[in-house]
Specification:
The structure holds 2 protein chains of 2 kinds.
Chain A: E1 7-17, E2 22-29, E3 42-50, E4 53-60, E5 71-76, H1 84-91, E6 97-101, E7 104-105, E8 115-121, H2 126-137, E9 142-148, H3 157-163, E10 168-172, H4 181-186, E11 192-197, H5 200-212, E12 220-223, E13 234-238, E14 243-247, H6 253-259, E15 278-288, H7 296-301, E16 304-305, E17 311-319
Parallel strand pairs in A: 8-9, 8-11, 9-10, 11-12, 13-17
Antiparallel strand pairs in A: 1-2, 1-6, 2-5, 3-4, 3-6, 3-7, 13-14, 15-16, 15-17
Chain B: E1 27-32, H1 35-45, E2 54-59, H2 68-73, E3 78-81, H3 85-98, E4 104-109, H4 111-123, E5 132-135, E6 141-145, E7 151-155, E8 157-158, E9 160-161, E10 168-176, E11 181-186, E12 199-200
Parallel strand pairs in B: 1-2, 1-4, 2-3, 4-5, 6-11
Antiparallel strand pairs in B: 6-7, 8-12, 9-10, 10-11
Helix pairs in contact in B: 3-4
The chains are: A alpha/beta, B alpha/beta.
């Protein structure tokens, strides 16, 4: 049960290989009709039915928010991941029917901003694709600084450079090109909002530098989807449902709860939104927190867990679910 | 004169803090009257290098020459002293227009000064939660008459007469950030002339 979001039945209307790592998928509503509107930065949760296993992964919508005919997402293949992106790359074909959630936005533009400064790393470009289309249509002032590994792995880099030649700046790792962050942040006019999406190291670097330079916390926005990590299988007692379940090696705690037929709340499935927060009634062992929703103090308290990304190692775990 | 303590009030009423050193390369400090003392207190704990990229805009008012020499002794990059907020507002607008992200804004003194400078700062795009304030000096209020919309400065009694339309007005804690003023409502609308006795609430 995703809080506040119903699901949408869609048909895959296109599968396009972008480069060695990234493939784009286009969804239209099964049976025709318009899809719900969304705002730049929103994501959808894609259900992947892989035999007995159902995975639910969030992907940023990258299509024009004004286009209600289709949604597009881009998926980067992660060979070390739990298999969601591999499923998308190897199993999903044009014409296939799938289920996705209504769009949810945890990374929206602050439209009070006088200027939007966007910093993207790798596949972190996708939410900005929709945001730039939204801003271009409303005469918004924006600038994108996009760091890619190589020109051939620079997903949409040449397309964006052609579309917004004076607004898009590409940095190639293999050519030793680096975003001059301090100079970049120092020169921004008052009222600029900063957005960053990319690997954790990049997000930490940008947020840390902005804080050091005195940027207000409210003007710095970031999105980091954590993929649930794999780990040793463990057993969990769900007290409210009166069930004992086993969480598999490559399964998240939330997925295991859902597989047992228990309706648990969720939104982002990436440790960011706080929707799936669950009370820990009892535990004898170590809670392996991986989210960035709970405070360090809450992590230490042992009283609460985010089942979408966090795990457990030890003897007994009892949740209020 | 220390920081002013206000009694608890409705949520609309602004609350003020104590100026403290924060990261950021440039500073804009706007103060009136005894608000200068808050800047001097800040200077006691802030790194000395901030003044080389600081701009102080000061409206001494009744404080006269009490603080001016001490503020100048901090050697800010720019120092301005002027007779009123209205006289300084062009300079304040210009300072915000030319400023970059990372600018630290510190406001100290009366509610009238802090409210008006706060509106200028938020209009320039700084979130209000990122602006530091400290109340010093008079608690007299800047009031807007909700009937004629005129602003009366330095209101010390409740009720008071609107300096524009002459109505007898009741002083509320209901505050407008956009107008940088508390709201004043006619106190004898139902029975003209039946006006409660004036009480001096603010000094």
């Amino acid at each position: 049960m995703s809080a506040g979001t119903a699901n949408i039945n869609v048909t895959v209307a296109g599968v396009t290989k972008i480069n060695d790592l990234v493939t784009r998928f286009k969804f239209v509503r099964t049976g025709g009709g318009e899809l719900p509107t969304f705002s730049g930065g929103a994501h959808t949760v894609v259900e992947m039915r892989d035999g007995d296993l159902t995975r639910l992964n969030p992907y940023s919508l990258m299509s024009d928010p004004a286009n209600r005919g289709a949604y597009t997402i881009s998926v980067r293949r992660d060979d070390q991941g739990r298999g969601g992106s591999l499923f998308m790359h190897s199993q999903v074909r044009e014409g296939m029917e799938m289920v996705i959630s209504n769009p949810v936005n945890l990374f929206s533009l602050d439209l009070r901003a006088k200027k939007h400064l966007m910093i993207a790393g790798g596949i972190g470009i996708t939410p900005f694709m929709a945001q730039m289309k939204q801003l271009a249509a409303t005469n918004g002032l924006f600038e994108l600084h996009y760091s890619v590994r190589t020109a051939s792995l620079g997903t949409y880099a040449s397309e964006l450079s052609a579309q917004f030649p004076s607004k898009v700046h590409i940095y190639h790792d293999d050519l030793e090109q680096r975003i001059q962050l301090e100079t970049l942040l120092d020169g921004q006019p008052l009222g600029t909002h900063l957005y960053v999406c990319g690997p954790k190291g990049m997000i930490d670097w940008v947020r840390g530098q902005a804080q050091k330079l005195g940027w207000p916390r409210e003007a710095v926005h970031y999105e980091e989807f954590l993929a649930p990590v794999s780990g040793r299988p463990f057993d969990v007692r769900l007290a409210a449902s009166d069930k004992t379940i086993r969480v598999g090696e490559h399964q998240s705690l939330l997925e295991a709860i859902e597989a047992a037929g228990v309706d648990a709340p969720y939104l982002c499935r990436g440790g960011a939104c706080g929707q799936c927060e669950t009370k820990v009634l009892e535990h004898d062992g170590e809670l392996k927190h991986h989210d960035h929703w709970l405070s360090e103090e809450e992590h230490r308290s042992g009283k609460v867990i985010m089942p979408c990304v966090s795990r457990f190692e030890g003897k007994t775990l009892v949740l209020d679910r | 004169m220390p920081k002013t303590e206000f009694p608890p009030a409705i949520r609309s009423r602004p609350v003020y803090g104590v100026l403290e050193p924060r990261g950021g390369k440039s500073h804009l400090l706007i103060a009136d009257g005894a608000g200068a003392a808050a800047i001097l207190d800040l200077a006691a704990t802030a790194p000395a290098e901030i003044w080389a990229r600081a701009h102080i805009i000061y409206i001494p008012g009744a404080s006269g020459d009490t603080y001016t020499a001490q503020l100048k002794a901090l050697k800010p990059a720019q120092f301005y002293a002027g007779p009123s907020y209205a006289a300084a507002s062009q300079r304040i607008g210009d300072a915000f227009a030319k400023a970059h992200m990372g600018l630290q804004v510190c406001l100290s003194g009366t509610e009238s000064l802090m409210g008006q400078a706060m509106y200028a700062a938020t209009s320039a795009g700084i979130p209000h939660t990122a602006i530091q304030t400290e109340h010093r000096g008079s608690t007299a209020r800047r009031m807007q008459c909700v009937h004629c919309k005129g602003i009366t400065e330095n209101v010390t009694t409740d009720p008071f007469e609107c300096s524009h339309c002459g109505l007898n007005l009741f002083v509320r804690d209901h505050y407008s950030r956009r107008l940088a003023a508390f709201q004043a409502v006619c106190v004898d609308a139902e029975e003209p002339g039946n006006v409660p006795e004036k009480v001096e609430l603010f000094r």
